[in-house]
Amino acid sequence: MKDKSIHILNFVGLGFFEPAIRLAAGEEVKKNLIALFRKVLLPVLSVGLFLLLWHSGAMVLYTIEKDARIEKALTERGQEAADLERACIESNGKDCKISTLPTPSQVWSAYQSLLADHSIISGKKAAFLEKVSATNEKRIADGLDPITYTGRPSFVDQIWTSLKTVFAGFLLALFIAVPIGIMLGLSDTLRSSVNWLIQIFKPVSPVVWLLLVTMIVVTVSKGSDGDSAFTISFISVGLCSMWATLVNTTMGVSSVDKDYINVAKVLNLSMSQKVFKIILPSSFPLIFTGLRITLSVAWMVLIAIELLAQSPGLGSFVWEEFQNGSSESNSKIIVAMFVIGIIGFLLDRIMLTIQKFVTFTEETV
Amino acid sequence: METTTEKPKLRRSDNGLFADKYMLDISQLTKIYPTPKGDYVVLDDLDLKVKHEEFISIIGHSGCGKSTLLTMIAGLNPISRGTIVVNNQTIKGPGPDRGVIFQSPSLLPWMSAYDNVMLGVKQVFAHGTKKDRDDIVKYYLSKVGLEDAMHKKAKELSQGMQQRVGIARAFALKPKVLLLDEPFGMLDSLTRGELQDVLIEVWNQEKITAIMITHDVDESIFLADRVIMMTSGPRARVGDILEIDFERPRLRKDVLDHPDYYKYREHLINFLEH
Known about the structure:
Strand content of chain A: under 5%
Helix content of chain B: 25-40%
Number of domains of chain A: 2
Largest sheet of chain B: 6 strands, mixed
CATH class of chain B: Alpha Beta
Number of strands of chain B: 10
Radius of gyration of chain B: 19 Å
Strand content of chain B: 15-25%
Order of helices and strands of chain A: HHHHHHHHHHHHH
Shape of chain A: globular
Oligomer: heterodimer
CATH superfamily of the largest domain in chain A: MetI-like
Mean pLDDT of chain B: 85
């Protein structure tokens, strides 16, 4: 049981829990205590240090902003106005809220209010669905589209939307980059003839891809009333992120171990056997590394693209909060930042785990 | 192997003629690598004939072109000039009529030992039934002592075990000629001895014409009917040929105790040192 859970933890990349489990089993106490200190306590300490620095930095910025405001009131409207301003700021009044980098505790309360907001909205949504369910059944029976909830999406809904977009974009990248990468890897001629295209388009900024995709999608989708914002953003995400997979697949396929190729030659394997039995399995590790990079790039550009394409998701959430400028906006933006970071990390871990499942490694067991 | 004509050769030949006295006929074989400083001639007008069911080993210094010769017979390396005829057919590229045992086992590490052998067997015995193919794979894997490990992934096997799979894979295809490119060069001496025994045991039953490249004088005497000594390159050619007249099947102990053994050994070492 113990060994099994350690094995699983290591497999999914959470190996730093290992000493805690070994310690709980009463194994080599001193050694595992040191390991626990190094692998768990020190990171926790560094998180604490980070929060402390953040808090004091935020306080400094707050003071600067506060002093500037009072100073301004003093020079423009005199001593009385300055005192009023100070009292207003210190009592946290609504009209004179200071907008600067929020402290960790403000971010935490913003996080909780976002969650509370989510439960209110999902409550409303459930109530709405219940109310219209009878009507919807009738509409479906009549061949009409059911009525859907069109209220404001909550933060959690935005996360799901973003994940859906990134997943669609990732799949698009996968289905474009892997087959093309295999073809390019197999043929030197093809590779050298389209190399310019890859080299030129690879460094193009996500924003430009978005504009390009918009030009095309807007024309193509003329007359249809589909969700073109989603289409535009997922295609842009796919196009921005596919290059790592394309390059890695090409490299993996073109650099298969010569011994394996000789085996294929000696056995007179057909082209398809050669590709599926030898070339693909042996280039799997490189292809997967490419896919991992693709997924993390996709997640990174997604925010910028959603922000510009006005398509719903975390990007537009951040942008709306920034435009909104309400008292909690800055804290909510920081919450979104952490959520984006943590989800990106989790996505990478998931890819790493899948990679370990499907690829061979040279290590002997 | 001097009594070739008395053996029923027809069984093993495709066209059933006595004319194909030689299984492998190499004539005026030349290999030139062009370099910026002019052509580099590795092999120059090399002639070699190998009889049916003969086991020859080729010995020579590193860089003399032994491996070049073998890869050319395998069809993996283009020929600059001359011809290679296998079983009365001029070779035009690689094919399963010539089985190769590479220096590194060259197994596909993501497949099991069984699947590695099956990959080739499926190719060669495409017309047979599934059961037949399964029998062939299992037979040869158990011949090389892997009946218990045949479903292990190749990457989980030791180097020696992997090379056993390599041997099974080559024999299972029932090639006309077996080409061995320093097959035991990467193994420690104990494992090497073991694998020589495995190889000679399987070979005694199959009697496939075999050509083995080696650095090892004792290995070449123990396994071969003839030892071909190549001169040092460039422009390497056959320098000397030594017939090894031990009875088959051979046992290592008998070979080592044989009074002629040291005579052969001295001959080979003398050639290599001069």
